[in-house]
């Protein structure tokens, strides 16, 4: 008997998956039935990954499964949301059981870690692409947004920046790095860690937030545009990993941190009046944020500085753009 679409769903996306009490009906019907908690607002994010654009043939299927969920969970984190449900639209060129086993394993792992349930989606035949829609909750009025930054607010980023960009450059043989550094940055590229806990800790503290998916310069400018403000960044304060600084010179390392996509860290602003509360809230956070600058009143003006002078060492484009 042929192995068809519904066998695929039953084998790879129904058995041994996490289940939540707020899912009345999940995978297997025309649509899901879900319960939204009282006094909560629903946060929804969607991202697509396309073979040959977001990943290539050498990317392990498990990494693809992890990352297609992680990029959506990072969007929820930037809104301060608690993840709840995922839906998946999967387009496959053929029935590849080894690939499906690895992909579903990676997706199931991250769903279990963040207590997300797969609630449905679609499967079709065609060029390999994956679209995930993630749903989460925030208390009414507590969502983090891009439009709340004010002059004088401090600018922070979580974790370290630029590693995924270095990994991609090494994969494409645009830079040579040591095997140990390559393993470190490749892990960051393949298995990003969405800062879900940090996002929730920032509710009622941060004045604005965004996740860094297209590069710090590109994504910070979204906050500046939405909030009608400017920013001053001290490039020497940007957190860089030892793998990055040990692989390229100082200006190149900063350029990777400013312009590379796929970091999936958070960039956010904190008013001076809330810095004490913020320091207490994140004191034991594993990806302790770093203050890299301050919001200014000059709308949409991003000034990169070193020792108080304009820094012009950035090379390459300002961030990832599908159509540039």
UniProtKB/TrEMBL annotation:
<keyword id="KW-0784">Thiamine biosynthesis</keyword>
<feature type="binding site">
    <location>
        <position position="211"/>
    </location>
    <ligand>
        <name>Mg(2+) 3</name>
    </ligand>
</feature>
<feature type="binding site">
    <location>
        <position position="213"/>
    </location>
    <ligand>
        <name>ATP</name>
    </ligand>
</feature>
<dbReference type="GO" id="GO:0009228">
    <property type="term" value="P:thiamine biosynthetic process"/>
</dbReference>
<feature type="binding site">
    <location>
        <begin position="121"/>
        <end position="122"/>
    </location>
    <ligand>
        <name>ATP</name>
    </ligand>
</feature>
<feature type="domain" description="PurM-like N-terminal">
    <location>
        <begin position="28"/>
        <end position="138"/>
    </location>
</feature>
<keyword id="KW-0479">Metal-binding</keyword>
<keyword id="KW-0460">Magnesium</keyword>
<dbReference type="Pfam" id="PF00586">
    <property type="entry name" value="AIRS"/>
</dbReference>
<keyword id="KW-0547">Nucleotide-binding</keyword>
<dbReference type="Pfam" id="PF02769">
    <property type="entry name" value="AIRS_C"/>
</dbReference>
<keyword id="KW-0808">Transferase</keyword>
<feature type="binding site">
    <location>
        <position position="47"/>
    </location>
    <ligand>
        <name>Mg(2+) 2</name>
    </ligand>
</feature>
<feature type="binding site">
    <location>
        <position position="214"/>
    </location>
    <ligand>
        <name>Mg(2+) 5</name>
    </ligand>
</feature>
<dbReference type="GO" id="GO:0009030">
    <property type="term" value="F:thiamine-phosphate kinase activity"/>
</dbReference>
<protein>
    <recommendedName>
        <fullName>Thiamine-monophosphate kinase</fullName>
        <ecNumber>2.7.4.16</ecNumber>
    </recommendedName>
</protein>
<feature type="binding site">
    <location>
        <position position="320"/>
    </location>
    <ligand>
        <name>substrate</name>
    </ligand>
</feature>
<keyword id="KW-0418">Kinase</keyword>
<comment type="similarity">
    <text>Belongs to the thiamine-monophosphate kinase family.</text>
</comment>
<feature type="binding site">
    <location>
        <position position="47"/>
    </location>
    <ligand>
        <name>Mg(2+) 1</name>
    </ligand>
</feature>
<dbReference type="InterPro" id="IPR006283">
    <property type="entry name" value="ThiL-like"/>
</dbReference>
<comment type="pathway">
    <text>Cofactor biosynthesis; thiamine diphosphate biosynthesis; thiamine diphosphate from thiamine phosphate: step 1/1.</text>
</comment>
<dbReference type="InterPro" id="IPR016188">
    <property type="entry name" value="PurM-like_N"/>
</dbReference>
<dbReference type="InterPro" id="IPR010918">
    <property type="entry name" value="PurM-like_C_dom"/>
</dbReference>
<feature type="domain" description="PurM-like C-terminal">
    <location>
        <begin position="150"/>
        <end position="299"/>
    </location>
</feature>
<feature type="binding site">
    <location>
        <position position="54"/>
    </location>
    <ligand>
        <name>substrate</name>
    </ligand>
</feature>
<dbReference type="GO" id="GO:0005524">
    <property type="term" value="F:ATP binding"/>
</dbReference>
<feature type="binding site">
    <location>
        <position position="75"/>
    </location>
    <ligand>
        <name>Mg(2+) 4</name>
    </ligand>
</feature>
<feature type="binding site">
    <location>
        <position position="46"/>
    </location>
    <ligand>
        <name>Mg(2+) 1</name>
    </ligand>
</feature>
<feature type="binding site">
    <location>
        <position position="30"/>
    </location>
    <ligand>
        <name>Mg(2+) 4</name>
    </ligand>
</feature>
<dbReference type="InterPro" id="IPR036921">
    <property type="entry name" value="PurM-like_N_sf"/>
</dbReference>
<feature type="binding site">
    <location>
        <position position="75"/>
    </location>
    <ligand>
        <name>Mg(2+) 3</name>
    </ligand>
</feature>
<feature type="binding site">
    <location>
        <position position="146"/>
    </location>
    <ligand>
        <name>ATP</name>
    </ligand>
</feature>
<dbReference type="InterPro" id="IPR036676">
    <property type="entry name" value="PurM-like_C_sf"/>
</dbReference>
<feature type="binding site">
    <location>
        <position position="262"/>
    </location>
    <ligand>
        <name>substrate</name>
    </ligand>
</feature>
<feature type="binding site">
    <location>
        <position position="75"/>
    </location>
    <ligand>
        <name>Mg(2+) 2</name>
    </ligand>
</feature>
<feature type="binding site">
    <location>
        <position position="122"/>
    </location>
    <ligand>
        <name>Mg(2+) 1</name>
    </ligand>
</feature>
<keyword id="KW-0067">ATP-binding</keyword>
<dbReference type="GO" id="GO:0000287">
    <property type="term" value="F:magnesium ion binding"/>
</dbReference>
<comment type="function">
    <text>Catalyzes the ATP-dependent phosphorylation of thiamine-monophosphate (TMP) to form thiamine-pyrophosphate (TPP), the active form of vitamin B1.</text>
</comment>
<feature type="binding site">
    <location>
        <position position="30"/>
    </location>
    <ligand>
        <name>Mg(2+) 3</name>
    </ligand>
</feature>
<dbReference type="GO" id="GO:0009229">
    <property type="term" value="P:thiamine diphosphate biosynthetic process"/>
</dbReference>
């Amino acid at each position: 008997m042929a192995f068809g679409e519904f066998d695929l769903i039953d084998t790879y996306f129904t058995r041994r998956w996490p289940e939540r009490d707020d899912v009345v009906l999940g995978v297997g019907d025309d649509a899901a039935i879900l319960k939204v908690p009282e006094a909560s607002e629903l946060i929804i994010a969607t991202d697509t990954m396309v073979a040959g654009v977001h990943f290539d043939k050498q990317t392990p299927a498990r990494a693809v499964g992890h990352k297609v969920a992680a990029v959506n969970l990072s969007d929820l984190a930037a809104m301060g949301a608690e993840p709840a449900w995922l839906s998946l639209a999967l387009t496959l060129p053929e029935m590849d059981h080894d690939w499906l086993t690895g992909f579903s394993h990676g997706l199931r792992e991250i769903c279990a870690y963040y207590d997300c349930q797969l609630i449905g989606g679609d499967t079709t035949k065609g060029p390999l692409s994956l679209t995930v829609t993630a749903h989460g909750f925030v208390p009414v009025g507590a969502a983090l947004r891009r439009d709340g930054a004010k002059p004088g607010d401090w600018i922070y980023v979580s974790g370290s920046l630029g590693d995924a960009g270095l990994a991609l450059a090494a994969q494409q043989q645009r830079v040579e790095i040591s095997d140990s550094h390559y393993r470190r940055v490749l892990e960051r590229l393949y298995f990003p860690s969405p800062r879900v806990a940090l996002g929730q800790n920032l509710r009622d503290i941060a004045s604005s937030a965004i996740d860094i998916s297209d590069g710090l310069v590109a994504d910070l400018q979204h906050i500046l545009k939405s909030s009608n403000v400017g920013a001053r960044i001290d490039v020497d304060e940007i957190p860089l990993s030892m793998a990055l600084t040990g692989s390229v010179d100082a200006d190149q390392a900063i350029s990777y941190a400013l312009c590379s996509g796929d970091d999936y860290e958070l960039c956010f602003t904190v008013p001076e009046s809330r810095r004490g509360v913020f320091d207490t809230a994140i004191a034991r956070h594993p990806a302790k944020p770093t203050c890299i600058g301050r919001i200014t009143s000059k709308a949409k003006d991003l000034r990169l500085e070193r020792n108080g002078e304009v820094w012009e060492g950035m090379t390459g484009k300002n961030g990832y753009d599908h159509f540039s």
